[in-house]
Amino acid sequence: MADLDDIKDGKDWGHDRPADTTRFFLKGAAHHDWGMKARLARIFRPDTGRTVMLAFDHGYFQGPTTGLERLDLTIAPLAPHADVLMCTRGGLRSSIPPESGKPVVLRCSAGNSILTELSNELVAVDIDDAIRLGAVAMAAQVYIGAEYEHKSIANVVKLIDSGTRYGIPTMAVTGVGKDMVRDARYFGLATRIAAEIGAQFVKSYYVDEGFEKITLGCPVPIVIAGGKKLPEAEALEIAYRAIDQGAAGVDMGRNVFQSSDPVAMLKALAAVVHDGRTGAEAYQLFRDEHRKAAA
Ligand code: R5P
To answer: Residue 142: left if φ>0, alpha if ψ -120 to 50, beta else—which one?
Structure first.
């Protein structure tokens, strides 16, 4: 039987210390359940509210693109320098050591290639496997205005419903079809739709004109993709402007793994995202790190 001897009445009720009623550090996430918040807190650093994600899921429709020929050689060594990894389950299982301990945002859609219609995707990972892999979030594209818009929204809704059941957030990625105009109006529409259907955070692109309206009009955090490879100074300036205008981080791929120094690039991005450094300051840091590594 349970030991009932010497049970003492409680004494320290903290009369002068009211319970913490501040809800949660992340935009739009105050009313989620504990598990959902715990996973979001592994994606977005609670001290800054931001994240540096490394995206290397490109192979699921692009094949072995430059920098991703051997994930085990090029990407695995970068893991310690990113906050989060974003990848396919095949890339993860085959090439990233579980000991890396990094949170993983799992690409959960597939079904197209660079040779076919990009918007024609399906949900390509069962929730059981996302749980088995310990994913902190799942991701799929919404292709607003594209031929398969309806199907892509249905994919993301399916992930949101199954993820919500188990406390796993979904990141909706605003995919852009070949004929889409990449402007603030388009991304404002796409990111807002993604948030309204229930995505806990959204991945979008930075645009020069009106990016702040996109972040203001989206009630959940936005992280930006990097897009095609740019000179490092330009990519860091874009990251700076995005953060300055309300983005909650980056989920960059080519501008990291195709950089002349991917580790220095991740450190420079972290300086922008977490330390409030400008693009120019971060580029100086990139050069310093690169010089040190080459010495
Ligand atoms: C796009 O479908 C993928 O999610 C990529 O991971 C994403 O576009 C980010 O990569 P990048 O910075 O190379 O654009």
So the answer is: beta
Mean predicted confidence (pLDDT) in 39-61: 97
Interval 75-88: pLDDT, tens: 999 999 999 999 99
* Ligand 1 pocket residue status of 252, Cβ below 6 Å: yes
Cβ of 226 below 6 Å from ligand 1:
yes
d(Cα 49, Cα 278) in Å, to the nearest integer?
A: 18
Please, are residues 184 and 214 in contact by the beta-carbon 8 Å criterion? Answer: yes
Please check whether residue 239 is in contact with residue 269, taking contact to mean a CB–CB distance below 8 angstroms.
yes
Q: Which two tokens mark 57?
A: 């899921």
For ligand 1, atom 6, the nearest C-alpha belongs to 55
C-alpha of residue 280 to centroid of ligand 1, in Å: 24
Say how many Å lie between the CA of residue 86 and the centre of ligand 1: 9
> Could you tell me which of 225, 223, 213, 145 has the C-alpha nearest to residue 184?
213
Q: Output the average pLDDT for the chain.
A: 95
Mean pLDDT of 150-162: 97
Q: Which residues are catalytic?
A: 203
Among residues 127, 109, 123, 217, the alpha carbon closest in space to that of 168 is found at: 127
Least confident of 21-25, 79-83, 160-164, 210-214: 21-25
Arithmetic mean of pLDDT, 86-105: 97
Looking at the domain covering 34-259, what would its CATH class be?
alpha beta
What pLDDT is attached to residue 178? 67
Quote the ligand 1 centre to 219 CA distance (angstroms): 22
- Do 52 and 273 form a contact (C-beta atoms < 8 A)? yes
254 lines ligand 1 (CB under 6 A): yes
Record the pTM: 0.94
